[in-house]
Amino acid sequence: MRRFPCVVSLGGPSLVFALLCALGAKTAHAGSCDRPLVSACVNSDTLWPSAGPTRFATIAGTQTTAPQQFSMGLVATYLQRPIVLAVPSPGPTGSKQNAVSDQVNGNFLFGYGVTNRLALHIALPVTFGQAGSGTAAITGGEDLRDTALRDVRFGLALALLAEPRSDAAVATPDRAPALNGALTARLDVSAPTGDRTQFAGERGGVFAPSLAFGATFGRFFGGGEAGARLRGVSQFSGARVGTQLAFSLGLGASILPRDLLAASVEARVLPTLTEQSDTVQGATGLVSTPNGLTITPAEWMLALRTAPLMGGDFVVTGGGGTGLPLGGEAVTRPRLRFLLGVTYAPRAFDSDGDGVLDKDDACPGVAGIRTVPAELAAPGKTPPRKGCPLPRQEDGPPVDFTAPLGAPGKSP
Questions:
Q1: Cβ-contact 98, 132 below 8 angstroms
Q2: Radius of gyration over alpha carbons of the chain, in Å?
Q3: What pTM was computed for the model?
Q4: Which residues are paired to 246 by β-bridges?
Q5: Which of 176, 210, 306, 406 could form a disulfide with 166 if both were Cys (CB 3.0 to 4.6 A apart)?
Q6: Where does residue 332 fall: left (phi above 0), alpha (psi -120 to 50 degrees), or beta otherwise?
Q7: Which of 266, 221, 229 is nearest to 246 (CA)?
Q8: Which domains does the chain have, with CATH numbers?
Q9: 25-71 confidence digits (pLDDT tens)
Q10: Paired strand residues for 266
């Protein structure tokens, strides 16, 4: 087993070190995608997280980053055996090789809210550590290197049916209906910047349009995404990866109020439209014959999420799951996946509509004052808190019912 030299903690200096460590990995020559039957231009990691608010670990959210605000985060995953290949041999069945046996990837996420409905995002993925035979089983080359750069992704999200920027747990029904739905159009583009010998990128650009949808009902929530990943075909041995459909679905519930703890179960399916092939070792080299089969990489995950700071904008997510055995062997379907993410995505929640964001509002469920009047902030007075309503003048001064009879402020 190879060492994982760039696996680090999630602290600020460690993030810088991890990025510099991954940037130190050597990149491959562009010609590595030219050999038709032994191309390693396949992205071993099908999970493409993006910056912005989301209730799920592996499903894109319907909310967008608040206007004129930046979002950022790091989502790290461990994959076991995402690339297992049938290697041609003189025998009738060939042999199985773990081209990628273990892998730790990180996605550095950045986003910007342009308007209340439109947000832009970019993802810089890297491989912190990995092990496997790579292309050595067929080409006789070296095993995988420890680190690699992966394909950069960028895109946009446009809310078609915007989700209210309010917390249903404290907002009035007019601000957050009991049953609420949302729909967001998304477009992601993957640029071929990754290392083409390390199963870290595609042979060309990938266009991934999709529709994300979600609904909430009380403390329960659901969501999903339907789209496609449009790409050219890459083949390594008998595995062929081309254009895919992309579907995901998740259900969850808030265990503690105000996003302190939530749990979800999620699933993703990527039906591949490209026909697979059987590859055998012939007298003159590899021979590939289409077999009429297709593959469907699929996974499920159980995740926990907590947002204890900054009014729910700072989120920590963790989860784990396995591949789903839909059909036969499917390249890019890991045996196991574990995820840990730390993100900051401003949502600008104002549940009572008083102009004071929930994270700064002492009374987020009741409309109040934005600033404390000067006359109420005078020495000797207890000023009202920001976001809370002013006391009504007709109520008169406060009465102390515990004072002795006849004392000032005592009710007769």
A1: yes
A2: 27
A3: 0.80
A4: 227
A5: 176
A6: left
A7: 229
A8: 12-344 (2.40.160.40), 369-412 (no CATH)
A9: 444 344 466 666 667 788 999 999 999 999 999 999 999 999 999 99
A10: 250, 301
